[in-house]
Each structure stands twice: as C-alpha cells, then as structure tokens.
Design brief:
Number of helices: 5
CATH superfamily of the largest domain: Transposase IS200-like
Helix content: 25-40%
CATH class of the largest domain: Alpha Beta
Order of helices and strands: EEEHEEHHHEEEH
CATH architecture of the largest domain: 2-Layer Sandwich
CATH topology of the largest domain: Alpha-Beta Plaits
Number of strands: 8
Number of domains: 2
Strand order of the largest sheet: 4-5-3-8
Largest sheet: 4 strands, antiparallel
Shape: globular
C-alpha cells in the first residue's frame, strides 16, 4: 500500500495497446525494449510497471499508480514515447509493415516555408499609426506533396484498460499477462 499526502491507496490498471492494423510486427527484441521504455516513462509519472508482456500484434501491462494521475494523459504519453523510440530504433524492420513514404520525414518542405513568408505583409492598423504585421490568408492551394508529412502511428488509437483490485483479481491478471505467447526472434 502506498501513501501520499493524507491518503493510503493501491490503484492498479491493466492496459492493452494494439499495433495499428493489428500488423504482426513485434519481435522479442522489440518487446524487451518496450518494457524498458514503459518502465522509464512510468517512473516519470510516479507510477510502477508491475507486469509486462505481449504478442506479435499487441502488448499487456499492469501498472500501479496514484490517485491524482490523469490517466488519459498517461496513456497518450506512453503511446507517443514508445512509438517515437520504436520508429527510430526499428525503422528498417517496421518499414515492411508501415510508412512506405518514410524518406523525407521530419520537416517542412521549402515551398511551404516560402509560401508562408509571402503571406506576411506590413499593413496599417486603423487604430495605430505604425505599421503592424498581419497574416493574410493564402489564395494559393498547397498540394498534398508540398504539405509536411504527418507523423505515422505505431499503436492503434484505441486501447483497453481495466481497473483491478489487490487480491485474486490482480494475481489472475498478472498471471494472464505473463503467459502471453512470446513473439519469435
């Protein structure tokens, strides 16, 4: 049992994340790395990873946390951080499953930047005698090729979560998580 301020508590959640499109792309090495990423991220949120496991297309984890936690922000942060590291460290392996347009990811293209600079012109404000800068709306349409590419997702947008209590329910969930079929090497 943990304590904080004037409260004693035990709060556990069973969380599942699924790979986008349920691609069977998680390897044993990736699973080990994910556990490390989740453990380190949860420490920053004053939470603990109790149990972790997964299969080739999804993962399970049991976490212990505190009552003042914003659970939806934690879930979003876990997905963002893990996705960023996995895309970076396993890009070659994951390119077979996702992101066929991987080249050129990262920044705005020059035409988009130039287009933005052309739309800033000094204009006189009716309330001021000095010239103020205002952003004009562009009449030029930007083609999809000129737009900055969106960051691809690794996890699906949905997730599963179950609040669990200490005792038989928690022990059964932990046993279930640990008995997941491990991905092949």
């Amino acid at each position: 049992m943990r304590t904080m301020n004037h409260a004693a508590f035990e709060i556990y959640y069973h969380i599942t994340f699924q790979v986008k499109y349920r691609h069977k792309c998680i390897t044993l090495d990736m699973l080990t790395r994910m556990e490390s990423i989740f453990r380190n991220t949860l420490i920053k949120w004053r939470s603990n990873l109790v149990s972790f496991s997964g299969e080739v297309d999804h993962i399970h984890m049991v976490i212990e946390t505190h009552p003042s936690l914003n659970l939806s922000q934690l879930i979003a942060n876990l997905k963002t951080v893990s996705s960023r590291y996995l895309r970076k460290e396993y890009a070659e392996h994951l390119s077979k499953y996702f992101w066929k347009r991987c080249a050129g990811m990262g920044g705005l293209q020059q035409t988009t930047i130039n287009c933005g600079k052309q739309n800033i012109k000094p204009e006189k404000s009716p309330l001021s005698t000095r010239g103020d800068f205002h952003l004009r709306s562009s009449t030029r349409r930007v083609s999809p090729k000129e737009r900055a590419p969106r960051q691809p997702y690794f996890w699906s947008k949905s997730y599963g979560i179950k609040s669990i209590s200490r005792g038989a329910d928690l022990d059964k969930i932990i046993e279930y998580v640990q008995n997941q079929e491990k991905p092949a090497q």
